[in-house]
């Protein structure tokens, strides 16, 4: 009789805990609620676990670092940093949006980092997918030779994602300087933040479909976005007419897998692969403050690294809209 009562009590407790973990929260988590010490007591092994998972992934494939960094950007720009980009709800969700479809990768790397976090923290339900992604992006940058920074934690995960929002809010490869400034400004990020964050293109690749028009000479009639002739010829060979639009070329042809200031050196030499890249140098007219900033980053890698780290913290503070249903997802690909 007593044993049966204890078992019933345990079952009730387990069900209650599951309900707490699974229940959606009306999201009002703001940047002020985030803290670098959020998991210090509940899971002190979290950050080493995520970094170890990322180190294994980057050692196996350096492109994994750039892919995870891009996932974080594309997540935060759509209703804040809430891991909505990880949800498997295509075609209605963010994965099916034009800037994401057929190009986002690294989901398996985030899954491995989440599994490592759950193992370090005593099981699922403690660490959100959004926090894992924020840590993984930071570690991706530092493992590729870039800066590190203290990540503020305590994010929750969205239960839904919106393809329409992703299509509307994510800057595209054909964006001009004014639209880039406006897009980042709508998120509370300054033109300086925008320029520093664009330096993430110092690693990774782009698909032919995103730059073929620029390097062919048929799609870039803006004098401010002129292209070095030798570089254009090189990229035409990498992406010839008739080639699969999903073929890729490095965004920084010199050091494609090292996080450095090579991207800005490329821009000064008119070797930006994407139209939106080259707009950062020349897009505001000769002698602009924008051009001066690119020149500064091109000659001073430490200044770029410092500004990039600060801008990543600010972008990582972007919170979901008030009223967004939030939770700590057990599986990053679907709501609880």
From TrEMBL:
Cofactor(s) for this UniProt protein: heme b; Ca(2+)
Catalytically driven reaction(s): 2 a phenolic donor + H2O2 = 2 a phenolic radical donor + 2 H2O
Subcellular location: Secreted
Transition state stabilizer (site feature) positions: 70
EC assignment: 1.11.1.7
The Plant heme peroxidase family profile domain, residue ranges: 33-336
Residues that bind heme b: 201
Residues where substrate binds: 171
Main location (coarse class): secreted
Sequence positions that bind Ca(2+) 2: 202, 252, 255, 260
Protein name in UniProt: Peroxidase
Organism of derivation: Sorghum bicolor
């Amino acid at each position: 009789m007593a044993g049966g009562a204890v078992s019933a009590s345990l079952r009730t407790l387990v069900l209650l805990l599951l309900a707490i973990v699974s229940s959606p929260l009306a999201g009002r988590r703001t940047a002020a609620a985030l803290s670098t010490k959020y998991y210090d007591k509940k899971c002190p092994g979290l950050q080493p676990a995520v970094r170890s998972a990322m180190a294994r992934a980057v050692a196996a494939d350096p492109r994994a670092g750039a892919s995870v960094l891009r996932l974080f950007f594309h997540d935060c720009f759509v209703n804040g940093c809430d891991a909505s980009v990880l949800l498997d709800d295509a075609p209605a969700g963010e994965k099916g949006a034009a800037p994401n479809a057929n190009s986002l990768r690294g989901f398996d790397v985030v899954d491995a980092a989440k599994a490592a976090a759950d193992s370090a923290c005593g099981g699922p339900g403690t660490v959100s997918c959004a926090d894992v992604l924020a840590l993984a992006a930071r570690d991706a940058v530092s493992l590729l030779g870039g800066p590190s920074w203290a990540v503020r934690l305590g994010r929750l995960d969205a239960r839904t994602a919106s393809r329409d929002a992703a299509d509307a809010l994510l800057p595209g490869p054909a964006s001009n300087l004014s639209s880039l400034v406006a897009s980042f400004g709508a998120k509370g990020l300054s033109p300086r933040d925008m320029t520093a964050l664009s330096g993430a293109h110092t690693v990774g690749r782009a698909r032919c479909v995103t730059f073929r028009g620029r390097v062919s000479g048929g799609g870039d009639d803006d004098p401010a976005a002129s292209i070095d002739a030798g570089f254009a010829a090189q990229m035409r060979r990498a992406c010839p007419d008739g080639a699969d639009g999903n073929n890729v070329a490095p965004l920084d042809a010199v050091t494609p897998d090292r996080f450095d200031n090579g991207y800005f050196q490329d821009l000064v030499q008119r070797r930006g692969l994407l139209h939106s890249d080259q707009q950062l140098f020349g897009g505001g007219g000769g002698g602009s403050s924008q051009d001066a900033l690119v020149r500064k980053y091109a000659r001073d890698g430490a200044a770029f690294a410092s500004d990039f780290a600060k801008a990543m913290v600010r972008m990582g503070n972007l919170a979901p809209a008030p009223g967004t249903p939030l939770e700590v997802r057990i599986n990053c690909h679907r709501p609880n």
